[in-house]
Specification:
The structure holds four protein chains of four kinds. Chain A is α/β, with parallel strands linked by helices. Helix content of chain A is 42%, strand content 22%. Chain A has eleven helices and ten strands. In chain A, the strands form two sheets. Chain A has a six-stranded mixed sheet with strand order 6-7-8-3-9-10, with helices on both faces. In chain A, helix 3 (106-116) crosses helix 4 (121-134), helix 3 runs parallel beside helix 5 (151-163) and helix 4 packs across helix 5. Chain B is α/β, with parallel strands linked by helices. Chain C is mainly alpha-helical. The longest helix of chain C has 31 residues, at 154-184. By secondary structure, chain D is mainly alpha-helical. Helix content of chain D is 82%, strand content 4%. Classes of the chains: A alpha/beta, B alpha/beta, C mainly alpha, D mainly alpha. Chains in contact: A-B, A-C, A-D, B-C, C-D. Chains C and D meet through helix 2, helix 5, helix 6, helix 7 and helix 8 of C and helix 1, helix 3 and helix 6 of D. The structure holds adenosine-5'-triphosphate (2 copies) and magnesium ion (2 copies). Chain B: It is a peripheral membrane protein. Chain B: Pfam families: ABC_tran. Chain B: InterPro entries: AAA+_ATPase, ABC_transporter-like_ATP-bd, ABC_transporter-like_CS, ABC_transpr_CbiO/EcfA_su, ECF_ABC_transporter_ATP-bd, EcfA_1, P-loop_NTPase. Chain B: Its main location: membrane.
């Protein structure tokens, strides 16, 4: 059993406190995320997903409560060094990460993170190359300016920039936004591969199909609070709760539920089209078998 | 009857050595919804911009509602076509919602006393009237996109072009916008040209055009194109949900009807078996 | 949505001053600064101070807000006043050391100087806390209009200003996002001296300018699609309307000025 | 691209540079040790705008940026002076930079002259509003602020120029 990678206790966060514009983005969050799993974080726009993840990466200082990542624990009074420690364990790929590229070449940009961690030029270069290779980024483009790449390639460089710091935990904020179906598929395969290599993955997403297909655990936020924490199966099984949080089940699940309403007996909620087809076939075969 | 006719159009961006569009001929039927689909970089946006004279046509001819699209008729063409873009942030010009809707009216020199009514009406059509005084920073992406739609509705165009206008929204907001468009098409008789790389969005429309590397690969009724799995897979487009299901069932030896079925029809068919 | 970025120092209290025409407030603010130059006696200074106090009360904005305006310049005020105090001559001399002296004239002059600072800073604050950024821009646009006759492209400048205002919050949150993303890659912005810190902003600024350029391209196309042409006349939706309360306020200011000059001449 | 589109693109880009300048002036405020003063980075925005878009837009971004920054920060008394000080700064930086061609030292010189003129303008502003002592007290921080802006501008302009085609 892997020990919990992240533990969040009584966490609250207020933007611009003590001003007329103070805004409580998170209140009283309690969560545990297991190591080497894929956790999906979902919720309506403005529910606090990005805020929570920035706290986990030590980019914001909690107003209340604590966050423990591995052996590091931070509270509102922790020192700057503690928050920096947090950042060493956690890698954060922001939404549209390609818009943060700045260096003159791909390799320089990927080396930026490792160099900031205090690595030598050589070690940083080695790390950068390793990260790019893992993303199967073409070797002949290493010296190219990152601004002369296609959208999909730019996104890979940006992700490599985070991977090169070798974090144990990787947070991805809507990594597939703006990509065409092919690009989306490739990126999710990459995420799956990183997970298999032993990384703990946290995936912020609006795509329920991705949740159903890839996540071990789902955390649903609603108005800055945890509205659900459990398996995708549990979440999608309870329609009334889903509605209350303002979410819609993936198409396969909705389809199966409608079939059930029509009297077709489906035993297991399908999490993807394959499972749905199988369920339908089971029912059909059962019926034809019965008919004989 | 086609309200937009594109005849033999090619286009090469200045400084580029390959044509982005290559001898395109296609037409968009009046009061129908046509979706252009194709992978990233296939030339969809370029085609849409040519139709609205946002870039000048270099070869071929485009006719919009009887008016030739050229430098001389830019004003007319812009009057007939309303254009909504992908990024809700980068088309919100006004400092408040009502100012943004007013922007187009100001450009078309609509007198001030007529503006108020038209702004109100347009905001009402997209259910944003109560947000008239809000600033863009106080709106969600979906709300901004509604304001963009109101901005063009106030100009009373005949044709609406949506260049991936929902791709940056969350699924709920996306669904709402598609519902809104369906309503507008039926109630006001707009011709809609939508661009998407997601075939799931094409199911809302009447016709589909497939673009690949600057060429038209297929065009026709939505139901015909989306059920043609060979075609869709050849251009790496992915299938809409019900078609995916049909394909899987067929592979497992359960054949389903050849015609296109939406979710409801599919459920009907399955439960009647 | 809670995403309202704090930017200027506007305080929404909807007081009578808030509701005045921004053009008027603008002119009054500058006129008051000019009046301050004429205040060189006890009575005139008291009169202007009194007027200012009434403005402050009417604005319904807390005194703390006004005080913070003065506080930021405290250091400059103190040094300037001390120089005035030690280097002025005239009247009774209380203390002398080489070329430094404290005289009665020096004391009075430095008190007037402190008051001048306080009055000018505070009247500026009154304008800013009671007028939204949007109103300020509208006022500037209107006040700029006469420049048309000397061929200044007033319409384009007004469009530039309005687009800039619209995108300030967007750019602000973009700056925050880019900074956070670079911090997530191990950057520490708070270390180092002035120049080292400035240098650390390079990985923030390059993405910011590049994305702004792309944004400008998209925005220009979107504006063109809606019929915008920088060289053509446009009608205008947002107009400032002069109300009767503005006329009364204007009359009041005239009265205040007359009293000031009367105090100067009579006493 | 035809000419009017290009003209519009420039106008809008200038507007965004103006927004950036105002944001820099409000959020990048670095305190100077040992004094109670601080410097902001609005000059970086102005110099960059002038170098990228030339003297006309340099003047517009500088003048409007200076003016507006004062208005929203509560320094209305400085607003007319800032309009002139930063307007001239943008004008000179844009014009001299163009003249400098590819010569590195001439580029630095162009920036320095622009900054110097800005500093002088503020000296007169403080002297007129208060007295010459206040004017002298401002010189140090204004020079420092100008130099910091110039360092940033010179560091990033070459890179940005490669990435955008105006
Ligand atoms: N810098 C900020 N200042 C003030 N409020 C903020 C700031 N950033 C976010 N907020 C507010 O906090 C709330 C939570 O924002 P957050 O970005 O965490 O939401 P989210 O769940 O990630 O939304 P989305 O799905 O749109 O990305 C929102 O209401 C947002 O407006
Ligand atoms: N302004 C431009 N200058 C030069 N080349 C361009 C320009 N705009 C687009 N292109 C190129 O033209 C091709 C087609 O671009 P277009 O934007 O029409 O594609 P698209 O189908 O809309 O793609 P997406 O789904 O990513 O929006 C691409 O290869 C692109 O790189
Ligand atoms: Mg978010
Ligand atoms: Mg496109």
């Amino acid at each position: 059993m892997v020990e919990p990678a992240i533990k969040i206790e009584d966490l609250s966060y207020i933007y611009s406190p003590e001003t007329a514009f103070a805004y409580q983005a998170l209140s009283n969050i309690n969560l545990t995320i297991q190591g080497e799993t894929i956790t999906a974080v979902i919720g309506h726009t403005g529910s606090g997903k990005s805020t929570l993840m920035q706290l986990v990466d030590g980019l914001l200082i909690p107003t209340n409560g604590s966050i423990t990542v591995g052996k590091v624990k931070v509270t509102p009074n922790s020192s700057k060094e503690d928050f920096a420690q947090l950042r060493n364990h956690v890698g954060f790929v922001f939404q549209f990460p390609e818009s943060q590229l700045f260096a003159d070449s791909v390799i320089q940009d990927v080396m930026f993170g490792p160099l900031n961690l205090g690595m030598s030029e050589n070690a940083a270069r080695r790390n950068a190359k390793e990260a790019l290779e893992r993303l199967s980024f073409p070797t002949n483009l290493y010296e190219r300016s990152p601004f002369e790449l296609s959208g999909g390639q730019m996104r890979r460089v940006a992700i490599a920039g985070v991977l090169a710091m070798d974090p144990k935990i990787l947070i991805l904020d809507e990594p597939t936004a703006g990509l065409d179906p092919n690009g989306r598929k490739e990126l999710m395969q990459l995420v799956q591969q990183l997970h298999e290599e032993g990384k703990t993955i946290i995936l912020i997403t609006h795509q329920m199909e991705q949740v159903a297909e890839y996540a071990d655990q789902v955390v649903a936020l609603s108005h800055g609070q945890v509205a659900f924490n459990g398996s995708p199966h549990e979440l999608f099984d309870d329609q009334s709760r889903l509605q209350k949080i303002g979410l819609v089940a993936p198409q396969t699940v909705r389809f199966a539920q409608k079939l059930q309403e029509q009297g077709v007996h489906i035993t297991k909620l399908p999490m993807n089209v394959d499972e749905l087809a199988e369920e339908i076939i089971k029912v059909k075969k059962g019926m034809t078998g019965y008919g004989k | 009857m086609a309200i937009v006719e594109v005849k033999g159009v090619s286009y090469t961006y200045p400084g580029s050595n390959e044509p982005t569009l290559n001898d395109i001929t296609v037409s968009f039927p009046t009061k129908e919804w046509t979706t252009i689909i194709g992978h990233n970089g296939s030339g969809k946006s370029t085609l849409a911009r040519l139709i609205d004279e946002l870039i000048p046509t270099s070869a071929g001819e485009i006719i919009v509602d009887g008016v030739p699209v050229d430098a001389e008729h830019v004003g007319d063409v812009h009057q007939k076509i309303g254009f909504v873009f992908q990024n809700p942030e980068n088309q919100f010009v006004g400092t408040t919602v009502e100012d943004d809707v007013a922007f187009g009216l100001e450009n078309h020199q609509v007198p001030r006393d007529k503006m108020q009514f038209r702004i109100k009406q347009a905001l009402n059509d997209v259910n944003m009237l109560e947000f008239a005084k809000k600033e863009p920073a106080q709106l969600s992406g979906g709300q901004k996109q509604r304001v963009a739609i109101a901005g063009i509705l106030s100009l009373r165009p005949k044709i609406l072009i949506f260049d991936e206008a929902t791709s940056m929204l969350d699924p709920q907001a996306r669904l709402n916008i598609i519902q809104l468009l369906k309503k507008l098409k039926v109630e006001k008789g707009f011709t809609i040209i939508a661009i998407s790389h997601d075939p799931a969005e094409a199911v809302a429309g009447d016709n589909v055009v497939i673009l690949d590397h600057g060429k038209i690969m297929a065009s026709g009724k939505t139901t015909d194109i989306l059920t043609n799995h060979d075609l869709m897979n050849r251009y790496n487009l992915g299938l809409p949900f019900t078609e995916q299901l049909k394909a899987k069932l067929k592979a497992k030896g359960i054949p389903s009807p050849e015609v296109y079925l939406d979710e409801e029809q599919m459920i009907q068919w399955l439960s009647q078996q | 949505m809670g995403n309202k970025v704090i930017f200027g120092i506007y305080v929404p209290t909807n007081s009578i001053i808030h509701r005045l025409d921004p053009r008027l407030k603008f002119m009054v603010c500058f006129w008051y600064v000019i009046l301050v130059f004429f205040a060189n006696s006890v009575l005139t200074n008291i009169w202007l101070g009194l007027v200012l106090l009434i403005f402050m009360r009417l604005s319904k904005v807390s005194t703390k807000m006004y005080w913070s305006g003065i506080k930021t310049l405290m250091w400059v005020i103190i040094v300037t006043a001390l120089v005035q105090l030690f280097f002025s001559a005239g009247g009774h001399t209380y203390w002398q050391w080489h070329f430094l002296s404290i005289t009665s004239a020096g004391i009075v002059q430095s008190i007037y100087l402190i008051l001048r600072f306080a009055y000018i800073i505070t009247i500026s604050t009154v304008l800013t806390v009671t007028t939204t950024t949007l109103q300020l821009a509208d006022a500037i646009e209107h006040l700029m209009k006469p420049l048309k006759y000397i061929k200044v492209p007033v319409n384009q400048i007004a469009m530039m200003l309005s687009i800039a205002l619209r995108f300030i919050p967007t750019i602000m949150s973009e700056v925050q996002t880019i900074m956070n993303a670079q911090r997530a890659r191990g950057m520490d912005f708070s270390q180092g001296n002035l120049f080292q810190r400035a240098k650390k902003l390079v990985p923030v600024m390059i993405p910011l300018f590049v994305s702004s350029f792309k944004r400008a391209e998209e925005l220009a196309i979107a504006m063109e699609a809606r019929g915008y042409d920088p060289n053509r006349e446009r009608t205008k939706y947002r107009v400032l309307t002069w109300q009767s309360r503005d006329t009364y306020a204007l009359l009041l200011v005239v009265l205040i000025s007359i009293i000031l000059f009367a105090l100067k001449i009579v006493f | 691209m035809d000419k009017s589109t290009q003209q519009l693109n420039k106008l809008i880009f200038a507007a965004l540079l103006l927004a950036i300048t105002i944001v820099f002036g409000r959020i990048f405020i670095i305190p100077i040790p040992w004094t109670h003063g601080n410097v902001n980075l609005c000059d970086a925005g102005i110099l960059i705008a002038a170098m990228l878009l030339g003297p006309v837009y340099g003047t517009a971004v500088g003048g409007l940026g200076g003016l507006f920054l004062d208005l929203i920060s509560g320094y209305t008394q400085y607003a007319p002076f800032s309009l002139i000080a930063h307007g001239l700064e943008g004008l000179l930086a844009g014009w001299l930079y163009k003249k400098a061609g590819k010569n590195k030292f001439a580029e630095y010189g162009a920036n320095l002259i622009a900054i110097l003129v800005m500093v002088i303008c503020y000296f007169f502003a403080d002297s007129i509003l208060y007295n010459w002592v206040a004017g002298v007290l401002g010189i140090g921080t204004n020079i420092l602020q100008g130099i910091v802006g110039m360092v940033i501008a010179i560091l990033i302009v070459p890179t940005i120029k490669k990435r955008i085609n105006l």
